[in-house]
Design goal:
Strand order of the largest sheet: 1-4-3-2-5-6
Largest sheet: 6 strands, parallel
Number of strands: 9
Structural class: alpha/beta
Number of helices: 11
Distance between the termini: 44 Å
Order of helices and strands: EHEHEHEHHHHEHEHHHEEE
Strand content: 15-25%
Shape: globular
Length: 279
């Protein structure tokens, strides 16, 4: 496995592999890898000749007073996991390598206005910009993203369609702990008490899945899920929403494919979870 720090050396390797007729898969990450990331890398390994993992904590997707400096980092540990699974290359640039004097940003407006976009208004502009840059640098045939970040996945798919990237976007299932909590690098922020409290998210998911199967209105699903979360004293709801699966816009009735998504603060830690429902 190789590690590159610059765009130039990364492109040189990719061009060499492409000349050999090899397919290239990309797994974009912010590092501090866990089993969720590992599932993406494994899927990428199954479907491509070359596996590239980017490890880059992207500063442009963090707003003021968010956890950029505190975001967990352990590149040595990440490298061991990537090599164990079979990655061929880790692209691990510094911020100065990715952003020289930035004035050009990529934004997918409609899909980014709801859900996480309401309270994190610059987040998805930063995500789209860095993912676009990674697509240009790595030129992958396929790129892999987790469905835990469902709004991000929808936005990236729309970006690829609108900007004519010749890349297949592969969404992979949420990976959960044995007790149901969705895997997240931010889970490390939780105290023992908060870790137990965080289970209200997966409990709310289960409740929502049971209720929505009865083809009820969106408000009933939201109210039932909120009741589960509000029963936990350490939890504070950012949002619980039912949105159209393609546009990320709120719906009143579940008469088309939807995403049911939530963001909840457990103490100071903001966690997300979701499930999809197909009509």
């Amino acid at each position: 496995m190789q590690v590159t720090k610059t765009i130039k050396e990364t492109r040189e390797l990719i061009k060499l592999w492409k000349r050999e007729g090899k397919t290239v898969g990309l797994v974009p990450t912010m590092g501090f890898l866990h089993e969720g990331h590992a599932s993406l890398i494994k899927k990428c390994r199954e479907e491509n000749d070359v596996v590239v993992v980017s490890v880059f904590v992207n500063p442009t997707q963090f707003g003021p007073n968010e956890d950029l400096e505190a975001y967990p980092r352990d590149f040595a540990r990440d490298s061991v996991l990537c090599e164990k699974i079979g990655a061929d290359l880790i692209f691990h640039p510094e911020p100065e390598e990715m952003y020289h004097d930035p004035h050009a940003f990529v934004s997918i407006d409609l899909l980014s206005e709801n859900l996480c976009g309401k309270t994190r208004p610059i987040h998805f502009k930063g995500v789209c910009t860095v993912v676009s840059k990674l697509f240009h640098i790595v030129a992958p045939d396929r790129a892999y993203f987790g469905q835990k970040d469902a709004q991000q996945l929808a936005i990236i798919r729309k970006m690829v369609l609108d900007l004519d990237f010749d890349i297949e976007i592969v969404g992979c299932p949420i990976i959960r702990e044995e007790d149901g909590l969705a895997k997240s690098s931010r889970n490390t922020y939780l105290s023992t008490e908060e870790r137990k409290a965080a289970l209200c998210l997966s409990k709310a998911v289960k409740c929502g899945q049971e209720i929505i199967a009865a083809r009820c209105e969106a408000r009933q699903v939201i109210d039932a899920m909120k009741a589960v979360i509000e029963a936990e004293p350490l939890a504070r709801i950012d949002y619980v929403s039912v949105v159209d699966a393609l546009t990320m816009q709120s719906v009143e009735k579940v008469d088309a494919d939807v995403l049911v998504a939530m963001a909840v603060y457990i103490g100071k830690t903001r966690l997300i979870d979701n499930f999809s429902y197909e009509v």
